[in-house]
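fyi for ur records
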Amino acid sequence: MNQCLIACIAEQRLYFFTEQGVYFWPISSALKGVGNLKNSNQTPLGWHLIRAKIGQDSPIYSVFKARRPTGEICDLASADKNRDWILSRILWLSGMQKGVNRLGHCDSMQRYIYIHGTNEEDLLGTAASHGCLRMQNDDVIELFARVNSGCPILITENNAVDCLANLPTEMQNVNANYQKQKTMLNQLFTDKNLTAFSKELEGAC
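which gave:
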C-alpha cells in the first residue's frame, strides 16, 4: 500500500496520506524547536522513513526504556513530569538525506528520534518534547496498526496545504538509494491525488 506521513511543526499535526484518504492527529514536537544536530533536543527536519516498529500487542501505556518494555504501566495522573516517558508504541525514524538527517553529526536514527505515546497528552498541539514526535496513546496505537515499516515521513515547518503544493519539489530531496520510498511517493502523490488531498485538507483545517 502506498502511504506517507507528513509532520507539520507549524500546526503540531501528523498527517497520514493513503490511497483511501487522509488521517491526522495532534502531536508535540520539540520544546527547543527544530534542528538536526545530535544532542540538540530539537526535532529534525526533512525526509525520514520508519525504520522499526516496536511494541506490537503491548498494553496501552506500556513503558519502554531503550526500546524494550519494562513491564510497567504508566499512570498518567501520577507520572513524574520531569521524566521523558516513552509509552505504548515506538516508530523509530531514520533519515533519508545524507548530511541533513543521516550520518555524521545529524543522524536521526542515532539520535533515537521516535514517534511515541506520551504521559503529557494535555500538551499535545504544543511544542513540548525532547526532540521526538509525541502522540496520544490511543492515536499512536492506531497509527502503528495502519502504517508500514519503510513508510516515508516528511518533517516540515510548513503547514499541510503549503507542503502539498511544494511536494513535487520536496520529493526530489529523497536520496536515490531509497528507490522503494521514491516509487511509493510518486505513485501516491499523482496530480489527481494531490488535488483530492488538498481539497480534503481544506475541508478539515
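Residues 191-204 form the longest helix (14 residues). thats all i got for now
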